[in-house]
């Protein structure tokens, strides 16, 4: 696929927003810049490899903020003429297209005026067990399998459910090693640019990263699963490997954070349903898989809180007889 080019050279595109961590990384490069390249081009995303081999992307601002992402105005998106394998110069505050075996289209993406994005922090400490379970039930209503699933997706659905159940049991037992093993079994499982198992782990991680959550086991286990040998990029797609690496630090697309924040705020059911549907709209099946992970996180959180509450209730001596 090739992004549509417009005539002319020396074009400047001012980014709308950019992941603050990515901006900091670019600001650490030498002033003369270093070379990277275009990894892959899609309708609304151009994936890039930085000089150090980090996968990041340009996207149209029709999409939401996300880790490792620089968003460009939709009106300027058609001006990109970048192709797979093209050279890109990365330097502090900008990216410059260099072409590859063809004319340089002269596009420079400027970050100076871009809003610096960081995922907002959610706090689940004030959400009681009943509300957590109710929110999980609301999300369940949006988990109808997408129409037109391919045979591979149909065949993998039962195995995804089984492995997700194993993960849930490990998290309830706060067994980091068992949880990490269950997560490794989910990585790369399913179809798509971001396989279903990876999307489930991403949704789970955002809940686990919220303040007031008892999800430390999930984040520790996910980091272990991501860092385990063989290299993550050999176990799933390059895009999904980047997504999981960020998820292990509790970072995902803005709309996923918005959903967890909506739950944390105790919003009414229509508001919660709208936030869930916004996540559900991601890709063909990715949204439903992310919702599955968020729901798993909520149910496990509720179970852990109930267990902790029971442990604090004193037992009368007569009740032990």
TrEMBL record:
Pfam families xrefs: AllH (PF11392)
Domain of life: Bacteria
Organism expressing this protein natively: Nocardioides ginsengisoli
Lineage, opening ranks: Bacteria, Bacillati, Actinomycetota, Actinomycetes, Propionibacteriales
Name listed for the protein in its UniProt record: DUF2877 domain-containing protein
């Amino acid at each position: 696929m090739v992004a549509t080019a417009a005539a002319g050279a020396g074009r400047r595109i001012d980014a709308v927003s950019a992941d603050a961590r990515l901006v900091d990384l670019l600001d650490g490069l030498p002033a003369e810049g270093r070379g990277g390249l275009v990894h892959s081009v899609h309708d609304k995303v151009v994936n890039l490899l930085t000089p150090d081999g980090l996968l990041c992307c340009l996207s149209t601002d029709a999409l939401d903020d996300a880790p490792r992402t620089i968003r460009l105005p939709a009106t300027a998106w058609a001006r990109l003429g970048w192709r797979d394998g093209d050279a890109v110069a990365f330097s502090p505050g900008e990216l410059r297209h260099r072409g590859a075996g063809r004319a340089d289209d002269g596009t420079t993406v400027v970050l100076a005026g871009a809003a610096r994005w960081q995922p907002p922090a959610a706090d689940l400490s004030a959400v009681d067990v009943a509300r957590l379970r109710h929110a999980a039930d609301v999300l369940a209503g949006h988990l109808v399998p997408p129409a037109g699933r391919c045979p591979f997706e149909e065949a993998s659905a039962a195995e995804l459910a089984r492995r997700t159940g194993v993960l849930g049991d490990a998290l309830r037992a706060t067994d980091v090693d068992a949880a990490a093993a269950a997560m490794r079994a989910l990585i790369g499982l399913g179809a798509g640019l971001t396989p279903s198992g990876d999307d489930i782990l991403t949704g789970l991680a955002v809940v686990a990263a919220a303040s007031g959550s008892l999800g430390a086991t999930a984040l520790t286990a996910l980091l272990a699963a991501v860092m385990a040998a063989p290299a993550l990029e050999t176990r799933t797609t390059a895009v999904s490997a980047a997504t999981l690496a960020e998820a292990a630090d509790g970072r995902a697309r803005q709309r996923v954070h918005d959903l967890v924040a909506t739950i944390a705020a105790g919003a009414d059911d229509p508001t919660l349903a709208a936030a869930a549907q916004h996540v559900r709209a991601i890709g063909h099946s990715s949204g439903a898989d992310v919702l599955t992970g968020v729901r798993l996180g909520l149910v496990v959180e509720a179970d852990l809180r109930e267990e902790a509450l029971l442990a604090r209730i004193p037992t009368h001596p007569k009740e032990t007889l």
